[in-house]
Specification:
The complex is a heterodimer of chains A (about 375) and B (about 170). Chain A is an alpha+beta fold. Chain A is about 45% helix and about 15% strand. In chain A, the strands form 3 sheets. In chain A, strands 1-2-3 form a 3-stranded antiparallel β-sheet. In chain A, strands 6-7-8 form a 3-stranded antiparallel β-sheet. A two-stranded antiparallel sheet of chain A has the order 4-5. Chain B is built from 4 helices and 7 strands. The chains are: A alpha+beta (about 375), B alpha/beta (about 170).
Chain lengths: ~375, ~170
């Protein structure tokens, strides 16, 4: 390859992970680099594979909620909800209104908590150490509320088939009002701190571009897809639960770079808080669960149910043969599909930007590997 | 008691299609006529069953047809029905908001069908995962290396016939 007067160039293989702080879990990628440019990459997943889908085939319907908790361990409520909706659809089960409102409030709070975690860790990925302190201060308050409502900070097992486990505590409204005021202030504070910082903009603007058509062909979803300018959101396209009763916007990006993917999430937190405020106003009194037996046998049939997770569109394909255990459960994990596009995003990027691009996808590896 | 356990007739979940799916059900037979598909419905989706070798050409047709434009692959999975394997594709149209489920049955002895990666690049990992767990071979897929399982893993753990290994300390 060498010609007179030129240095030899040779492609080098760089291994990242599986034990690497920037991968947010156990993810390994092999990069082939030419100088500072990435020529090609190969992702390796499966380090956290627990066979969750297979495990579901051996559990009764009520027990599977706990398995769904452990798929995406940052968006627990959203995962419980999509599974319960699938079973309810199969059984044609009505859920009391109050339960639907509690579900929506919890899921949206969970979205805020998840995006706050992203906000903090993405700051670290780009070299800013302070934002995570602000983010965790606020996230902790949300976790405290989760604990008051469901009894657990994570792995709540709160949303059940037919409703929710128990009603919210008596001082829920006061606590929520206080929490919302604090969250609003916290989000604004973080936004002012990081979003338009000169260094942060230089690290993220125009980095990791993906256009709408490519993003759709890879099956990307959620904020990562909306950053490319596609207003696709299951909450609007196919409203589930009581989402059709709220007035909220779908933030979209312009170019589909890392900064857009970041800022769409910041805006989404504000929209989630709008939903929570409306839900608190509209929340009716009444029962919080339709009585369902522990051992249920849904009729034979199959459903595919979609919902919007903090990371994107999660789907559950449930096949029942009329027994007390499902015949097959398949999860469509949003992070799995978003991660598939990484190969495209990293091509021709600088090695130094690899961490930022990976971070901007907001992955949870527990869900990718299942 | 005995009567209850030997009950052979399991109730079927009733079909409850939404308006969008009903509209799709009406236009589909005409567009897909050349493949002679079996068109039915699951609880909430329009269901199309075709021969395995027709899958890629049908996928390309439904993606490029302006009335349908199924440009988004929601999910690809395999279901083990003991005497055959069923490959299930869930499709979505971002512009027309249609949803559809496409099914192809492959035999247990020779589970293979053409890959749909040329139509939707997003099928890549789903197909590799299906190969890992169920042993379905997707012809034309550029890289069928293990994705979820480690290299050298024996057996197909997704199948019903797979026996879970006993717990061992290591």
């Amino acid at each position: 390859m060498s010609t007179e007067g030129q240095l030899d160039t040779v492609q080098m293989m760089v291994n990242m992970g599986p034990q690497h702080p920037s991968t947010h879990g156990v993810f390994r990628m092999v990069l082939w680099v030419d100088g500072e440019r990435i020529v090609d990459m190969e992702p390796h997943i499966g380090y956290l594979h627990r066979g969750a889908e297979k495990l579901c085939e051996g559990e009764i319907y009520a027990q599977i909620v706990t398995l769904f908790d452990r798929l995406d361990y940052i968006g627990n409520f959203n995962n419980e909800l999509v599974y319960c909706m699938a079973v309810e659809k199969l059984m044609a089960l009505e859920v009391p209104e109050r339960a639907e409102y509690i579900r929506v409030i919890m899921c949206e709070l969970n979205r805020v908590a998840s995006h706050l975690l992203f906000f903090g860790t993405f700051g670290i990925d780009a070299g800013a150490m302070t934002p995570i302190m602000y983010a965790f201060r606020d996230r902790e308050k949300v976790q405290a509320l989760f604990e008051a409502v469901s009894g657990a900070r994570m792995m709540h097992n709160y949303i059940r088939i037919g409703g929710v486990k128990n009603d919210v505590p008596e001082d829920f409204r006061e606590r929520m009002d206080k929490l919302i005021a604090e969250l609003k202030q916290g989000i604004d504070e973080g936004d002012r701190l990081l979003s338009f910082s000169e260094i942060f903009l230089a690290r993220t603007k125009g980095i990791g571009l993906i256009d709408a058509e490519t993003a759709i062909s890879y099956g990307m979803s959620g904020p990562s897809l909306r950053a490319s300018g596609v207003p696709m959101d299951v909450r609007k396209d196919e409203p589930y639960s009581v989402y059709d009763r709220f007035d909220f916007g779908i933030p979209i990006g312009e170019k589909g770079d890392s900064w857009d993917r970041y800022y769409v999430r910041v805006e989404e937190m504000r929209q989630s808080i709008r939903i929570i405020e409306q839900a608190l106003e509209q929340m009716p009194d009444g029962p919080v669960a339709t009585p369902v037996r522990i051992l249920i046998r849904p009729p034979a049939g199959e459903v595919y149910v979609r919902s919007e997770n903090p990371r994107g569109e999660i789907g559950v394909y449930l096949v029942s043969n009329g027994a007390d255990k499902p015949y097959r459960v398949k999860v469509r994990p949003p992070s799995f599909c978003n991660l598939m596009a990484l190969k495209h995003l990293l091509r021709d990027a600088y090695v130094a930007d690899a961490v930022v691009i990976l971070g901007s996808l907001d992955l949870v590896l527990g869900e990718v590997d299942r | 008691m005995a009567e209850r356990h030997s009950r052979e007739e399991t109730p079927r979940a009733p079909v409850a299609l939404d308006d969008r799916s009903r509209a799709l059900e009406l236009i589909l037979p005409k567009i897909l006529a050349e493949f002679q598909p079996a068109i039915g419905a699951t609880v909430n989706l329009v269901e199309v069953t075709v021969k395995p070798q027709d899958v890629p050409s049908l996928c390309r047709l439904v993606k490029e047809d302006s009335q349908l434009s199924f440009d988004y692959l929601l999910c690809l999975c395999v279901v083990d029905y003991l005497d055959y394997l069923q490959v299930v594709y869930h499709l979505y149209s971002t512009t027309m908001k249609y949803k559809m489920v496409l099914k192809a049955n492959v035999t247990m002895d020779e589970p293979s069908l053409p890959s749909v990666m040329p139509v939707w690049p997003g099928a890549d990992w789903f197909e590799r995962e299906a190969h890992d767990l169920f042993g379905v071979v997707f012809e034309g897929h550029p890289n069928m290396a293990p994705l979820i399982l480690y290299e050298g893993f024996e057996g197909y753990p997704g199948r019903k016939s797979y026996e879970m290994p006993e717990y061992t300390e290591w």
